[in-house]
Design a protein that fits this description.
Mean pLDDT: 91
Structural class: alpha/beta
CATH superfamily of the largest domain: NAD(P)-binding Rossmann-like Domain
Radius of gyration: 19 Å
CATH architecture of the largest domain: 3-Layer(aba) Sandwich
Number of strands: 10
Strand content: 15-25%
Number of helices: 8
Helix content: 40-55%
Distance between the termini: 46 Å
Largest sheet: 7 strands, mixed
Number of domains: 2
């Protein structure tokens, strides 16, 4: 099923919110309630769920468990995908700590660094391998996704390497835009841009 990137993002957010509903012992939810938790419109929620063919609405709202399963069937892979973090500094550790164990179909199986104080150690729950073993480990562990948290000056070179070694998807946390082949999916997250966006709206709404 082909879906717009923004729709996939929202489906992930819906699932995370719905999992929180289960923790609250809430088994049903209306579209306007789900929308309010994510600061979007109920129309957007209903439109996204229609795109994935979900229309099972009862008088008490959407069945939370059923909707979680439906979203999982759409956005998760049938088989698990293995993930590696490239650069296990402060940001890499934070990402590893947040990521590990959050999704059953996404396995954080390795990190890579060139710091001899880090290699061959388990850091934030994941083993760190030396940079010069990257090709071998990516192939041995069948790693398909790379999260890049290296210093910006090295990001382009690292991206070229992992693409050459068989990586199919990259999440770039550095401030340097990357160029990758069209068959590699690239998602870039620039914290500075996000903070400046927040600051702009704070400035515009200053009383």
């Amino acid at each position: 099923m082909k879906l717009p990137g923004k729709t996939v993002e929202r489906l992930s957010e819906y699932r995370r919110t719905l999992l929180g509903c289960l923790d609250e012992k809430k088994n049903f939810i209306f579209s306007h309630d789900l929308a309010a938790r994510l600061h979007i419109t109920a129309v957007q929620v209903r439109r996204d769920l229609m795109l994935i063919g979900y229309s099972s609405v009862q008088r008490k709202g959407y069945d939370v468990r059923e909707l979680i399963d439906t979203i999982g069937n759409i956005i998760d892979s049938e088989q698990s995908l293995n993930v590696a973090i490239l650069g296990i500094g402060n940001l890499g550790r934070a990402v590893a700590g947040y990521f590990k164990g959050k999704r059953s179909k996404l396995n954080l199986v390795a990190s890579f660094d060139n710091d001899p104080q880090k290699v061959n150690k388990v850091i934030s729950g994941v083993k760190c391998y030396p940079h010069n073993e990257m090709e071998k480990i990516i192939k041995e562990l069948d790693i398909k996704i790379a999260i890049i948290t290296v210093p910006p000056d090295f990001a382009g070179e690292i991206a070229e390497e992992v693409v050459r070694f068989g990586i199919k998807g990259i999440l770039n946390f550095t401030t340097i835009p990357l160029n990758v082949p069209s068959w590699v999916f690239l998602e870039e997250y620039d914290m500075i841009t996000s903070i400046e966006k927040v600051a702009f709206f704070v400035k515009e709404n200053r009383i």
